[in-house]
Amino acid sequence: MKKKRLIIALMFLSAGFSTIYGQEWVAPESEAAVVNPLPFNNATVREGKAVYEKNCKSCHGDPGKNNPIVLTPPPPDMASEKMLANTDGSIFWKLNTGRGAMPTFKGTITDDQMWQVINFIRKFDPRNAGKLTEEALKKGTLAATINSDSTSLDITADFQGAPLAGVPVFVQVKKAFGMLDIGKVVTDANGKAIFRIPDGTAGNAEGKADFVLTFGDEFEKTQAEVQGIKVAKPVTDNPLARGNVLWSTNDRTSGWLLFAYFFVTGLVWLTILYIVIQITKIKKAGQKN
Ligand code: HEC
User: Fold this and answer.
1) Does residue 233 contact residue 240 with C-beta atoms inside 8 Å?
2) Which of 106, 129, 142, 244 could in theory staple to 224 by disulfide, Cβ–Cβ 3.0 to 4.6 A?
3) Per-residue pLDDT tens for 247-261?
4) For ligand 1, is residue 55 a contact (CB within 6 Å)?
5) Helices 42-55 and 111-122 meet at what angle, rounded to 10?
6) Is 91 in the pocket of ligand 1 (CB under 6 A)?
7) 76 lines ligand 1 (CB under 6 A)
8) Which of 59, 104, 105 has most ligand 1 atoms within 8 Å of CB, for mutation?
9) For residue 285, which phi and psi values (nearest 5 degrees)?
10) What is the SS3 assignment for 194-262?
11) Tens-digit pLDDT profile for residues 200-259
12) How many angstroms is it from 141 CA to the middle of ligand 1?
């Protein structure tokens, strides 16, 4: 009798969970009908892409690649039918309300940025195929040299000898795993810019850094590199490589840590043993009656 009730309770519970997780997220009709005030064009899509990379990509992954982070329910891919079934107004409402692991962006990004990122999502909508004119990528050449006391990079941008004025140049440092953004400068009327290397820019073991400079997205991929610039003192003692940080063997582990580990696991096993003994006692007592 008791067992039956338990099974029924469990059934209700799991049904409850699956309805919460399986439930479609639907915006109210009046909100879904709200129209995007921004035009759908290369400029708004490009701005939306920047908003997406900064605020959404960490969870939703790369559009069309179906590589979101593991969450329940999963963050849908931006190019998926589920995402594109939303009207612009519906996405705007969802960004403002949030649900579960999906945060609300009200107050984090502006309304304009929301409509921009919505335009970026719309780019993956097959119904919009051909609506964005193919933008010819701009061309240019970048050159950079380090100044005499290794504190700044002197940058020159030109196209076939003519200076490129007012062009953003992005500066990154090569790391063991990819690139680290360290800043951006805009060229002056002569196509020149000076990038001050921030204090505390980390170098490799010898305290040297390799800088990579690139134009923004609207340019054909061009880059300039300035390599082996001394930015910091050589790293002589890497704390992560010290013996006691590598816990793979007992003799490298600190005594207190081993003690704490065995103490805690010992306690857990004792508790389990205690419970088992108590249960056997109850069982035995039950058999006597
Ligand atoms: C912390 C992780 C996280 C971030 C950051 C995030 N999302 Fe989400 N998003 C989710 C999850 C999880 C869901 C599924 C929520 C659900 O169905 O309950 C979701 C759902 C959505 C939906 C609804 C899809 C549907 O079912 O109709 C939209 C639209 C959306 N996200 C857009 C965005 C945009 C745009 C950004 C960036 C501005 C963003 N998300 C940032 C985790 C995230």
Assistant:
1) no
2) 142
3) 555 666 678 888 999
4) yes
5) 100
6) yes
7) yes
8) 59
9) -60, -40
10) EEECCCCCCCCCCCEEEEEEEECCCECCCEEEEEEEECCCCCCCCHHHCHHHCCCCHHHCCHHHHHHHH
11) 887 887 888 899 999 987 888 888 898 888 887 666 666 666 655 555 556 666 788 889
12) 39
Give CATH superfamily name and number for 141-230. Answer: Carboxypeptidase-like, regulatory domain (2.60.40.1120)
Structure tokens at 181: 């953004």
**Single pTM value for the model:** 0.58
Atom of ligand 1 nearest to the CA of 99: 18
What's the gap in Å between 57 CA and the centre of ligand 1? Answer: 10
Does the CB atom of residue 101 touch ligand 1 within 6 A? yes
What's the pLDDT at 181?
87
Report the phi/psi class of residue 228: left, alpha or beta, with left for phi > 0 and alpha for psi in -120 to 50.
left
How many Cα atoms within 13 Å fall on the side-chain side of residue 46? 11
Answer whether 156 contacts ligand 1 (Cβ < 6 A).
no
Q: Could you please state the CATH topology (level 3) that the domain comprising 27-128 is classified under.
A: Cytochrome Bc1 Complex; Chain D, domain 2 (1.10.760)
Spacing, Cα 31 to ligand 1 middle (Å): 17
Tell me: cis bond preceding 73? Omega within 30 of 0 counts: yes
User: Can you tell me which residue has the tokens 């795993």?
Assistant: 177
Residue nearest to atom 33 of ligand 1 (CA): 56
Every domain of the chain and the residues it spans: 27-128, 141-230
For the stretch 19-75, pLDDT in tens is 455 578 999 999 999 999 999 998 899 999 999 999 999 999 999 999 999 998 999
Token duo for residue 107: 């107050």
Question: b/e per residue, 227-238, with b = 16+ CB within 10 A?
Answer: eebebeeeeeee
